[in-house]
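Case study 2.
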Amino acid sequence: MNRNRALIALVVAIVIAVIASRFVYRQIQKASAVKPLPVTHVVVASRPLALGTPLTAQDLALITWPKDTPLAGSFSRIQDCIGRSVITPLSKNEPILEGKLAPKEAGVGLPAAIPVGMRAVSVRVDDVVGVSGFAMPGTMVDVMATGTPEGGSDSLTRTIIQDVRVLAAGQTVEQDKQGKPHTVGVVTLLLTPKQADQLTMASTDNRIHLALRNTIDTKLIKKPAPVFKSALLLGGAEPHVTGGGHRRPAPRRNKVRPAKPAGPAPYVVEVIKGNKKTDQSFSGQ
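Prediction:
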């Protein structure tokens, strides 16, 4: 009796094992039947690249990229990028995009990094004008001019250009990674043609200063008002318009108090008391 029970239990165990093994085998077949996702290749930077760098084969590498998620403006062949210059700094493994490269006929170096329709203008600076060496490539600045208008007698300072990018500091076109200041003699700014004319004219007879600003601060002041030297010395007196059309503070005038009118002359009365005679004066009021 016990022997029959043991035999039945063995048969049941064998049947369960067969069923389980067939289930596992089918799951493995299904898993192996799943097709891999289609991929393509994308060209990336193999090392950090500075602004204006002409690309070589050593600067580039290929990585796999999901084919179903195309990257607009990317390249799949390294040879399509060789010889073109980057117009923005690139990090390692950053995809190379059409919008980050200068046109093929633009050449190499800094000129290739100047967008079409823009101009690069250099300004001679010292440690003060160059914001103590912090006006580095990629930073944003305002340009201020200090001088005396023609026909005027009062010097003034005015912001003539706002929120423009520093393209190069000296011959450096890449910002210091630690943010350390560097003293340079010339700063190159990226300007529109009109701004280039304004800066060139202002730097001829005036002193130029740069004001460093936050790169995310893009707010512009409409028609910035000039600051006159005499206004500062007079404690911010209200300006007025001179004959030349320039505004300057009106000079202070001392108030003159009118003189009091003279009263009538006093009169004298002769007073006789007994044998004594005296003169007494009385006011005419």
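The longest strand covers residues 156-169.
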